[in-house]
Fold Nucleoside diphosphate kinase.
Amino acid sequence: MALERTLSIIKPDAVAKNVIGQIYARFEAAGLKIVAAKMKQLSRAEAEGFYAVHSARPFFKALVEFMISGPVMIQALEGENAVLKHRDLMGATNPKEAAAGTIRADFADSIDANAVHGSDAVDTAKNEIAYFFSAIEVNSRA
Ligand code: RTP
Ligand code: MG
């Protein structure tokens, strides 16, 4: 087992549904600790930069529009195997394929408005946390 950190974003649809607390409760119940957090209205440039890896994909423009449609809640989570544990809690990208009891099955409406983001690997998590938080804004709770 490895102590890891991962970057979580509660997307504008889930913030609008007022389920930040319900999603945080799932993180905590799974042993993931919030070590940094902020609510933010992303600018277009910030959203494009965050999803730059997808810039050539057909869904990129819609993804950016969606991510700037309202404030997001951004947090770094820390725990054993945090990256995979968090993705298990999230469920599949398309909520129609997400397992019962996952965040996307319970709170997402479509593949575009799918409630949450989570880093897909330890390396990308490091970059994604540094994209939104300075070193002194991330606390160790190990
Ligand atoms: P995320 O990065 O947001 O945590 O989601 P993910 O890893 O499950 O999915 P990813 O492949 O990284 O795609 C990023 C976001 O783009 C939207 N998407 N739309 N229409 C489509 O085929 C499609 N594919 C991806 C989703 O909103 C996804 O969360
Ligand atoms: Mg992804």
Residues 122-132 form the longest helix (11 residues). The mean pLDDT is 98. Residues 95 and 109 are 7 Å apart (CA to CA). The first strand starts at residue 3 and ends at 10.
